[in-house]
Amino acid sequence: MPDVIHLLPDSVANQIAAGEVVQRPASAVKELLENAIDAGADEITLIVREAGKTYLQVIDNGKGMSETDARMSFERHATSKIKSAEDIFAIHTKGFRGEALASIAAVAQVELRSRQREEELGTCLKIEGSTVKSQEFCNTPHGTRIEVKNLFYNIPARRNFLKSDAVELRHIIDEFQRVAIPHPHIHFTFINGKSELFNLPPVGLRQRIVNIFGAKFNERLVPVEEKTPILQLHGFIGKPEFARKTRGEQFFFANNRYIKNGYLHKAVCNAFEGLLQDGSHPTYFLFLEIDPARIDVNIHPTKTEIKFEDEKAIHVIIRTAVKHALGQYNIAPSLDFETDQQFSMPGLPKGTPVERPGITVDPTFNPFEDRRKSGAGKASPSLHPKTPMQDWESLMNELPDLDAKTNPQERIDVEPAARKHFTQVGKKYILTAHGNGLIMIHQQRAHERICYERLMESLESKNIPSQQLLFPQNLNFSAADFQIVESLMPQLREMGFDIDEFGNHEVVVNGIPLVLESSDIRLVLEQLIENEKDFRGNKKEDHLGKMAQVLAKVSAIKIGKKMEQEEMHHLVDELFACSSPYVSLAGKPVIVNLHLEDIDKSFN
């Protein structure tokens, strides 16, 4: 039997390795930017076209490479960062594996130009699919310039998995921000096509964050700082009132390397407990300076996931530091454990006489008088008001004879709402008698269903009613979020928005759908942005359906709204006119049928 195991050719092995390191254009951008930082550059320019699919370039003024180093940099596992396995646990640089350039060159057409400052001529190297096409001397500025053309040109299947230009550009912006934020001393420029998305001069950390996410961010940031034997923590958190529905502005950096860690994210969220509305996410930019020997960055090819030696202690430090910052800036109450708050009294002005406390007693009070008047065994009216009881008695009097049994799962054929009496329970449910029991309707889910089906009907007829705003609203977004809003402009206009671009990363809203309140505009757009980040649909109808759901949820009446009889009648009538009145937009029940048997069991 012939041998079947053989070594893969280098070109094939490099393409397989590239699948781990270079998943999309943003992956190549990340690796090239980090290489430029490791080269000591203080000026870095990123240029992309067609979201990096056909062209991306990184230019730096770092130390450059010699002719030999330029050639060796494209060999797998060729690195200047480590010499032994022990060196991995003393890494302060971004890269160290020697896989980035080899992986990129395996799936693209690459041209590198590099010159050391002390040399007169530099090196020009051209590689396609791991094959060196040419290497020669050239005249080039000191530093390194790398061009990457036609990514995945030799792996069409991988290229087909790339998303739209808007989605891929958004990923590139994310990677650019993750590199630019922790290095405020470096001048970064980002050019997309013919437009300049970012021009970030050297500044302090706070100003770098403001330059990336907008001037309004300055007032939102609260500094965090903590020094312990385990780590040094510094950075900023966002004030709770500026928490958003989107999850974009959440950054952890370990030794200036962007990382993802769900456990540490929970530490921040726990510190904000009780300060955020449901569904809101805190903003934070937190930097952990820690001994490299205490972490392992070598567990993932992209090095965004790392292991900590003492993760639980770090969790406590972060949670405590964030809580302290919130309390220190009077955002949350700061507790003083040395003072008994129960006996804490304000001081009196000097010379103010102290009055002796006294007790006022009503000598005519008889605790049994109301009980005798109201009859033995009945509670005092002063303790249990009778008004709500009258509503329940009125409701129960309308119950029909319950001698017929019906299936709880069968459809409820409700009589016209005008014939019924409704009771609102807990400002959340609408309750009424029906057949052999009661039905309860979730008022918010019901109205969401009504609004959604109205919107979808209007979309089909291409006639969504809209209203012009008396005062147009200008809304500013981060660069990544602005790209999403920009891509959604046609659908937004179809949904009834009168919206246009206005300046850098800003839009102006002149009109909104009739179902929406002007105060909800930012909330709707932020929720649409969040949905778009997670949504994987490609059809226009799918996007419009998702947008209709967001509009319906924001514009629907909420739990806690008191409803009058006429409002409840109208809501129930409209609900049972819907095509799917029993299921909410999230697939949860809108109506619950309580049979007499179920009620009887509660009294057994």
What proportion strand? 15-25%
Count the beta strands: 22
Q: What is the CATH architecture assignment of the largest domain? A: 2-Layer Sandwich
Number of domains: 3
Order of neighbouring strands in the sheet with most strands: 5-4-3-6-2-1-7-8
The CATH superfamily of the largest domain is identified as MutL, C-terminal domain, regulatory subdomain
CATH topology of the largest domain: Ribosomal Protein S8, Chain: A, domain 1
* Low-confidence sequence ranges: 333-346, 370-410
Count of individual helical segments: 17
Shape: globular
Q: From the helix content, strand content and strand pairing, which structural class follows?
A: alpha+beta
* CA distance, first residue to last residue: 78 Å
Write a structural description:
The chain folds into 3 domains: 193 residues, Heat Shock Protein 90 (2-Layer Sandwich), CATH 3.30.565.10; 114 residues, Ribosomal Protein S5, domain 2, CATH 3.30.230; 219 residues, MutL, C-terminal domain, regulatory subdomain (Ribosomal Protein S8, Chain: A, domain 1). Helix 1 packs across helix 4, helix 6 packs antiparallel against helix 13 and helix 8 runs parallel beside helix 9. The protein is an alpha+beta fold. It starts with 9 loop residues before the first helix and ends with a helix. It has an 8-stranded mixed beta sheet. It has a 5-stranded mixed beta sheet with strand order 9-10-13-11-12, with helices on one face. 32% of the residues lie in helices and 22% in strands. About 9% of the residues have low confidence.
